[in-house]
Amino acid sequence: MQSIIQVTGLTKSFKNLTAVKDLSFTVQEGDVYGFLGQNGAGKSTTIRMLLTLIQPTAGSIELFGMPLHTHRTEILRQVGAVIEKPDVYKYLSAIENLRIFAKLSGLKPTEQQLMNQLEMVGLADRAKDTVKTFSQGMKQRLGIAVALIHDPKLIILDEPTNGLDPQGIADIRNLIRHLSRDLKKTILVSSHLLNEIEQIATRLLIIDKGHKLVEGTTTELFDPSQTLVELETVNNDAALLQLQNSKWTDHLQPRRTGALLIKLHRDQIPDLHKDLVAMQVPVLSLQPRHSLEDYFLQLTSAQHAHTH
């Protein structure tokens, strides 16, 4: 399988800030690669380096097996990107927008090809409507159609669901699935929302303050045998003693907050529930999280602790 993006030791320093530090990762052909981190973690800086909008301070980037700094034009012809809000002409219709952007790419698509592009992003029925009548989600989907006009192999989407309502978010999610499964595109999608990425990514990378924290396939990272249950009872200290004297003692994890943490396989939760009832532990809440979600929460709460 060909690697589409190969980033090695990538670093970007601005005057008094290192936004990306020694970052390395690989995106394989056919991946929906989730690029996850809080705002300010270095995601957008990395994406701008991949698109040659800013120069790295150190490190190397290869796309399609070619060094980016020597094969820029050749590479970017095969890349489509939407970063920030898509720039579309509000007073023109969807199809006119596509026609203009196609022309800028040196293409002369037929009316049918343009309609196919709009069909793909679910806007065929609004082809002749002016963009100013579109919702934010529709503008975002039109922006993606523009990025796909030259049929790129790699699509880069920076926070594509920012500012969208739940329906808009679901539409973008379905579009990404369609691009990946049916059109066999490789997609790099950044987000600060874990559950968003979890639903679409095949592999993901979490970065924090420019550093890589964890990378892997979603199957590895969302392993059901590594489920953490957060347990709140009327008296956690008393409940802890009872659990320590039960078969769950080896499952107890160090506490980070007042709640009790128990690590188990997701399938063991009903059994835990039954035992808590039998031990007459008054349960207030029992919340399962997979380890990555827990990891991400730790990361965000640790960050908030620094910033507040």
TrEMBL record:
Residues 5-234 form the ABC transporter domain. SMART domains: AAA. InterPro entries: AAA+_ATPase (IPR003593), ABC_transporter-like_ATP-bd (IPR003439), ABC_transporter-like_CS (IPR017871), P-loop_NTPase (IPR027417). The keyword ATP-binding applies. It holds the Pfam family ABC_tran. Gene3D superfamilies: P-loop containing nucleotide triphosphate hydrolases. It comes from the Bacteria. Keywords: ATP-binding, Nucleotide-binding, Transport. SUPFAM superfamilies: P-loop containing nucleoside triphosphate hydrolases. One of its GO terms (molecular function) is ATP binding. Belongs to the ABC transporter superfamily. This is ABC-2 type transport system ATP-binding protein/bacitracin transport system ATP-binding protein. It comes from Sediminibacterium goheungense.
